[in-house]
Amino acid sequence: xxxxxIAYLIILLNCCKWATATIDERIVGGYFDxxxxxxxxxxxxxxxxxxxxxxxxxxxxxxxxxxxxxxxKKPSDIFVRAGSTYKNRGGEIRKAKKIILHPLxxxxxDVPLDYDIxxxxxxxxxxxxxxxxxxxxxxxxxxxxxxDPQCIVSGWGITKSEVGQFQLLxxxxxxxxxxxxxxxxxxxxxxxxxxxxxxxxxDDACQGDSGGPMACRGKLHGVVSWGxxxxxxxxxxxxxxxxxxxxxxxxxxxMDTDESEDINRMLPKIKLYGKK
Length: 276
What we know:
By secondary structure, the chain is an alpha+beta fold. It has helices spanning about 5-15, 65-70, 180-185, 240-250, 260-265; strands at about 25-30, 30, 40-45, 50-60, 60-65, 80, 90-100, 120, 150-155, 170-175, 195-200, 205, 215, 220-225, 235-240.
């Protein structure tokens, strides 16, 4: 009997793997890295299973990750490890104080992974004088990157399509794929304006990398979300697109920007997400 998507989803969640029945996204290929090269990369853990998703440190008490990583979880379920090349030891550990999912996540029936972004507030600040822990700026709506630049994804996900998650941090260089090309390639799925595609060559994100960063030109441009296979030739990975989702993040986190006057004109729409 053919397994239904819902049944498959339940199995994946029970195994503490990621969140969808038909799509997967995690780093295959790439290279071994050290946390000081990508010091904004953090590991999300549960007490029972350890590492389950990645994240990006965007302030000393705030982490950006994927909403599907935290769907159904409470702050008491998770903790964050920062400043370590290893996913299950070293660095600094902080408990989660608050989890905030984008209010439109799971609300778009035809695009269940649209608005796949969430925030974790830590219970206390991380070190601010460490070479191993730094936060990364977020690309705002005025910083949509033209062309097809190369970006860096990092995490502790599986390194081959059928191999367990890796203990050491890996990074990969991926190139942005134009929206219309990505939509034609992944024609059975809807690629919304809140998504950006990258990869589709030999290097890619993979299982366990979900929620982790895609940094372009030194700023957080994407959050690992989903894909069809890992490093499948011609099948790019799909990332939550920070320039389109910036207002959700800004509603909860104060962010410095050189374009303060232009950004201030955008702030009224942030009220949708509850900015006080």
